[in-house]
Amino acid sequence: MAKNELKELSPPRKQPAMPEGFRQLKTQVAGHTFEESNAEAVGLLQDPTAGCVLKPMGKPECGERELRFYESLAAAGASGDNDLALLRGHVPRFYGPLKLVVNRRERTFLRLEDLTRGMSQPCVMDVKMGKRTWDPESSPNKRKLEEAKYVMCKQKLGLCLPGFQVYLPKDAEEEEEEKKEHPTILRHGKDYGKSLNVEGFKQTMALFFNASTSDSKTRRVGTELLLKEVLRQLQAILSWFQRQRLLHFYASSLLICYDYSRLANSNTQKSLLNGHHRLEKDDDPANWVRVRMIDFAHVYPADRALPDENYLFGLRSLIEVVQSILHR
Ligand SMILES: Nc1ncnc2c1ncn2[C@@H]1O[C@H](COP(=O)(O)OP(=O)(O)O)[C@@H](O)[C@H]1O
Ligand SMILES: [Mg+2]
Fold first, then answer.
1. Where is this region: Disordered (predicted)?
2. Is the pLDDT of residue 307 over 80?
């Protein structure tokens, strides 16, 4: 890993002043983060006992737009029969705003379900959706800046990769036991994502799913389960987007999370290798794989009640990339 990449993603050495019971979200792979030299810069917090993360409300317009988005979902029909209510299943659960003093300043945070909760070795990827990542109120300058970022992937795939972390088995020369107990962790930020072309993006996705490192039969079985579960959850999000005419999402992401420790989980393998297709409840991949939409700072009412073709284009190409990894 390049030195600047390490610097980019390492938590600052000087720990920010944090209220009791909270800590920095160590698995944050993208977005606004804490900075050692700037006490004003705040990243996500984690409340491990409650299974929540706390996202700081950033720039006023963005923070308020995101708060309104989550509040409108919470207020949508309880019967679950309208499109807003159905969207709740594809985003983190929302537990309301909360004021906290961080770095001696009071700020408001959005309390959200921690999508990595319960994962002992969380692999996390933030995929930003759409060829167009500037919203309808952007200045010409902001629009230009956005169009110049992640050009290769964004224009061809309608996707870009601001960051990810993945656990990988140690080099093949290592002892089997050693490999199982001490995987290595690889983290990359936006500089890496910006360097990717389409082929590089596809290879990175395969790496993230441990599909290029599946050197043992047990892990191959786990990777297949993982890819099928990711596809199932992506298809469910696609079905929602194909129907809805309410909202357009700019610069929003999909967060893909899974637990590396479950890739080689003995019960999962046994039941599959023995041909038992009914998995124990705890082994159901839905318990260790989560694909959810996040980052709603730039969500707008749908223009002329049209479908969100910009998001749909990226989502379809993401599904194609994952399918091609599964079927190769
Ligand atoms: N609900 C969540 N659970 C776990 N991690 C999250 C959650 N929401 C955000 N994150 C982490 O924080 C990062 C930044 O979140 P995001 O909402 O995109 O913030 P920003 O507006 O700063 O881009 C994500 O890439 C992810 O690593
Ligand atoms: Mg983001």
1. 1-20
2. yes
